[in-house]
Amino acid sequence: GAETRHPSALEACRRRGGQAVEERDRVRERNRSLRGCAVLVGTECDILEGGAMDYPDEVLKEFDYVLASVHSKFTLPRKEMTERVVAAVENPHVSILAHPSARLIGSRDSIGVDFEAVFAACARTGAAIEVNAGPTRMDLTGPQARAAKAAGCKIAVDTDAHGGPELSAMRFGVGSARRGWLTAADVVNAWPLERVKSFFR
After folding, report:
1. Position 172 pLDDT exceeds 90
2. Residue 116: how many CA atoms within 13 Å on its side-chain side?
3. By the 8 A CB rule, do 69 and 107 touch?
4. What does the alpha-carbon distance between residue 71 and residue 48 come to, in Å, rounded to a whole number?
């Protein structure tokens, strides 16, 4: 079953969500004065044990995009983990499944998950799958990216950067995408802005 949240924890989550929405509004106001670029506001949301998000839907619907990620309970049985991830991408507010294997190179193995079932769910729901360029993640791998494309998935390539200097890792994600035989047509963040916005909507 889904993890339960104490009412005070849920209220704290709503407060954090409210702060994020305020930040989104500030960014949208700033976008009105920008020329030649636009900033989209999203969040990376934890996938709880039963597949629920750690923000309620009333908060998630306010973002331009939502990434869903496994950040806890990495050793669930394969069937349970697969159901957890599939339930997450079935949430209509989830735009991207981030670092799908949850591995950390040199310190944590991949979660036990049926990637074929996850790819099928993403293709069905329209959630993109991340190729994470972070040197400690490199997730999806090239062959996995190719399998995701074959299943009908769209891909998002990004750095998982937590600071400006980490943005230079993008070349590793592009390399993984190329090893998966992906082209710009397969990669959401290689599309024109209006198509990206439409995809996230």
Report:
1. yes
2. 1
3. no
4. 8
